[in-house]
C-alpha cells in the first residue's frame, strides 16, 4: 500500500496559543479514539478520477467500511477542533474523502503574468480516459497537524504534532 497525504481539516494556526490549543485538541482526539475502541490504521480503497469545478483533480475514495470510518474520524476531529475554538463548526462544504492529484491554481505559479490566463478549468478531455481508474489501497496510519506557512518549495509541510491511529 502506498502512503499519501491530504487535508482532513484546514484552519489558521496563527500564534503560539492557537497552535498549543490545536495540539491539545489532537491529544484529546487520540484519547477519545482509544477510549472508543476506534484506534488502529484504516484502509481506503481508491477508484475513479473526478474534479471539483474543473479546478482540482482528485482520486475518489470508495464508499465502503473504510470510507465510513474516515468520515467518522473527520467528524470527531472537527468536533474536537471546534470545541477547542480553533476551527469553524461548518464551513458550508460537506467532507469529501479524496486524494488530490492536481490543482489548477498550482499549474501557473511562477509563470509570467498572463501566461495561462485563458485556461478557466482543467479540460475534461485531458483526463476523460482516466475517470474509471483503479487506484488500489491506501493505509492511513496517522493524522498530522501541519503548518502550511514557511514551507520550502517542493517539500512537505512542517509537522507540529501527530496522532498514531
Automatic annotation (TrEMBL):
Gene3D superfamilies: Cyclic phosphodiesterase. GO terms for molecular function: protein kinase A regulatory subunit binding. One of its GO terms (cellular component) is cytosol. InterPro entries: AKAP7-like_phosphoesterase (IPR019510), AKAP7_isoform_gamma (IPR052641), Cyclic_Pdiesterase (IPR009097). Residues 8-165 form the A-kinase anchor protein 7-like phosphoesterase domain. GO terms for biological process: regulation of protein kinase A signaling. It comes from the Eukaryota. PANTHER family: A-KINASE ANCHOR PROTEIN 7-LIKE PHOSPHOESTERASE DOMAIN-CONTAINING PROTEIN (PTHR15934:SF2), RNA 2',3'-CYCLIC PHOSPHODIESTERASE (PTHR15934). This is A-kinase anchor protein 7-like phosphoesterase domain-containing protein.
Amino acid at each position: 500500500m502506498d502512503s499519501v497525504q491530504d487535508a482532513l481539516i484546514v484552519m489558521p494556526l496563527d500564534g503560539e496559543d492557537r497552535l498549543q490549543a490545536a495540539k491539545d485538541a489532537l491529544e484529546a482526539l487520540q484519547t477519545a479514539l482509544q477510549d472508543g475502541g476506534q484506534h488502529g490504521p484504516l484502509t481506503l480503497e481508491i477508484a475513479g478520477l473526478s474534479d471539483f469545478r474543473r479546478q482540482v483533480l482528485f482520486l475518489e475514495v470508495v464508499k465502503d467500511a473504510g470510507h465510513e470510518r474516515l468520515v467518522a474520524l473527520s467528524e470527531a476531529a472537527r468536533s474536537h477542533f471546534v470545541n477547542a475554538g480553533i476551527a469553524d463548526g461548518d464551513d458550508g462544504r460537506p467532507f469529501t474523502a479524496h486524494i488530490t492529484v492536481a490543482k489548477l491554481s498550482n499549474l501557473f505559479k511562477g509563470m509570467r503574468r498572463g501566461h495561462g490566463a485563458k485556461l478557466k478549468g482543467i479540460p475534461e478531455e485531458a483526463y476523460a480516459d482516466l475517470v474509471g481508474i483503479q487506484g488500489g489501497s491506501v493505509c492511513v496510519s496517522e493524522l498530522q497537524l501541519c503548518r502550511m506557512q514557511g514551507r520550502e518549495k517542493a517539500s512537505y509541510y512542517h509537522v507540529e504534532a501527530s496522532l498514531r491511529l
